[in-house]
Specification:
Elements: H1 3-17, H2 21-43, H3 46-62, H4 73-86, H5 92-95, H6 100-109, H7 124-140, H8 145-156, H9 161-168, H10 172-193, H11 208-213, H12 223-226, H13 260-270, H14 274-279
Helix pairs in contact: 1-2, 2-3, 2-4, 2-13, 3-4, 3-13, 8-10, 9-10
Length: 281
């Protein structure tokens, strides 16, 4: 971000902190895609990501006056989001934790032949594509929360190790080492079980009804295939170090535009009675 952009952001943040609704909406709109995509990859489903994103954006809003400019604004937002998401217990996969061993066995041995047709007249090819996109999120749920966060920061957002280490409270060297290990673990799993991004056999087309039965996808809510790609980016002090040769295998780490429901939530809050309470806090 150049000097002029920094000055414009500082002025906008000052106006937002003073209670200017338009400035505050602009500030939140500028980070909502970042918050939503981090939440989506950390929690696994659109519904859970929307709920968590609302909580995080409200925290950003109510703590805005504590931002001192010691780091980039996006780094400050990341820190709030990461702290919220690492201990978030209200999402589906917190109740039903996964492991690579369990998920791999489920992909290979799940009793898909025992499930009736649950497609509700939706084209099976469309549902298979939804499952492919959803499956990469499920893979991430096989990692513990901190490893998942390290993978997302380093692979999806390409955050510099100095900034990522600061966000997570670890040294840049420790962050790079952990990122390398978790990327290898993900690459090994993809290589064995995924035909889309690895060298395995894609089973998604045959697992559609099984996935519907297990609430992994829903014919009446095709969130992934309906979502539009976003150009979400993060300001960093230097380009992310290329620590291994796995980048091409992680092309599934694309970002999405935050749902209109989340944008409407921000507008409703700013125009509702709760805003005056926050503004006066």
């Amino acid at each position: 971000m150049n000097t002029k952009e920094n000055q414009e952001l500082s002025a906008l943040l000052e106006q937002a902190t003073a209670g200017d609704k338009a400035a505050l909406e602009t500030v939140l709109a500028g980070v909502q895609d970042l918050v939503f995509n981090l939440s989506l990859r950390m929690l696994g489903t659109f519904h859970d990501a929307e709920d968590a994103s609302q909580d995080i954006l409200l925290k950003v809003m109510t703590h805005l006056s504590s931002f001192r400019g010691d780091s980039a604004f996006t780094t400050w937002v990341f820190r709030i989001a990461v702290n919220h998401l690492k201990d978030y217990k209200k999402h589906m996969f917190a109740q039903f934790p996964l492991s690579f061993e369990f998920y791999g066995d489920d992909i290979r041995s799940g009793k898909i032949q025992d499930v009736p047709d649950l497609t509700q007249n939706v084209e099976k090819t469309i549902l298979a594509e939804e499952l492919k996109l959803s499956c990469t999120n499920v893979m991430l749920q096989c990692l513990d929360p901190e490893s998942r966060c390290i993978f997302i920061l380093g692979t999806m957002f390409r955050v510099d190790s100095r900034i990522a280490g600061d966000i997570l409270g670890i040294s840049p060297e420790t962050y790079r080492q952990r990122l390398s290990r978790v990327r290898k673990k993900m690459a090994d799993f993809l290589s064995e079980y995924c035909g889309e991004y690895g060298k395995g056999t894609c089973r998604c087309a045959n697992r559609v009804n099984y996935a519907i039965q297990n609430h992994r996808i829903a014919p009446n809510r095709l969130d992934f295939t309906a979502a539009r790609p976003s150009d979400t980016a993060v300001e960093v002090t230097a380009a992310m170090e290329e620590i291994d040769g796995y980048s091409q295998q992680f092309s599934f780490c694309r970002t999405y535009q935050s749902p209109e429901r989340l944008k409407q939530m921000i507008r409703d809050f700013l125009n509702g009675p709760a805003f005056s309470t926050v503004a006066e806090a």
